[in-house]
Amino acid sequence: MRKEGKRGGPVISQAKKPLRFYLWRDKWLYLMLVPVIIYYGVFKYAPMFGAVMAFQDYNIFSGITGSRFVGLTNFINLFGKVQFWNSVRNTLVLNLLNLLVSFPLTLILALLLNEIKSKWFKKTAQSILYLPHFISWVVVAGIITNLFNMSNGSVNSLVKAAGGEAIPFLSSPGWWIFTYIFSNVWKEVGWGTIIYLAALTGIDESLYEAAYLDGATKFQRIVYITIPSIKSVVVTMLILQISNMMTIGLDAPLLLGNSKVMAVSEVISTYVYRIGIEKAQYAMSTAIGLFQSLINIIILLAANKFAKAIGEDGII
């Protein structure tokens, strides 16, 4: 269709093409999405049907469709268990301590790496810092045990050689929390810098040059240019970490924990493991998972609303 422009020139308006045109034009891109869609469909969305077990007196032989519906009975029984609330408390405490230590440390480490001018040294340092993320928690637990074992651990051997007394890193609740936070930070702090380093590369270099000409020191350039430039990324990462306050992976507390520190090492994931796998209480463990997901969503929405209240964009 041809139309006359304001100055008399022809303007060609393209008719809206059907959906099949774009599907065929970008068919290879959509084809690459197929494995991702299948993965999320099979392992993320299909298992949601199993959430109905939380409202049933689930029987493994009758299955989901044949088990008796009991409403909120599982949740009432769950909320009456002291051990469940202890696991909730431990999950929140460990996650909060880990956040208070790892979040600022990750940001500081990214800022320090960004200031390194030698490319080979920067790449080497990044590789060394990223490496622990790819080590299995089984291996990390073995390393931590060899380092902090009270009788023959490397750290306690040095302490005793210096005339001190052995420290119960893995058998005292307070020291166990320290060891847990230390191992988590060592394993993940380098990997957490990736997002920040990517954001730092997008900062306009002319801002640094102008600040340098105005006499700003390196510290002032970091405070007044670098940090404000990546503030939105920092807020987004903080919201995402806060939204997982009720979630801790099974590996670390299960492998590092023991009967002497059960009062602080029993978190929601290990509690679900014990009642779901060891005691075969599938309905109860499903109820815990549903409760955990609901609380995480509430925390996410609250953190996002707070971010918007202080002038940030948030993630929703």
Assign the CATH class of the largest domain: Mainly Alpha
Please identify, by name, the CATH architecture of the largest domain.
Orthogonal Bundle
Got a strand count?
Answer: 4
Total domain modules: 2
Helicity level: 55-70%
Structural class call reads mainly alpha
Q: Reading side by side through the largest sheet, how are the strands ordered?
A: 1-2
Main sheet characteristics: 2 strands, antiparallel
Number of discrete helical segments: 17
Report how far apart the termini are: 41 Å
CATH topology of the largest domain: MetI-like fold
Strand content: under 5%
Shape: globular
Give a structural overview.
This protein has 316 residues and is mostly helical. The protein has 2 domains: 2-69, no CATH class; 82-309, MetI-like (MetI-like fold, Orthogonal Bundle). Helix content is 66%, strand content 3%. The protein has 17 helices and 4 strands. It has helices at residues 19-25, 27-45, 63-66, 73-79, 82-115, 119-130, 137-148, 154-161, 173-188, 193-200, 205-213, 218-229, 231-242, 251-256, 262-265, 268-278, 282-309; strands at 2-4, 10-12, 56-57, 68-69. The strands form 2 sheets. A two-stranded antiparallel sheet has the order 1-2. A two-stranded antiparallel sheet has the order 3-4. A hairpin with a 5-residue loop joins strand 1 and strand 2 (10-12). The longest helix is centred in the N-terminal third of the chain and has 34 residues, at 82-115. It is globular and about 75 Å long. It starts with a strand and ends in a 7-residue tail after the last helix.
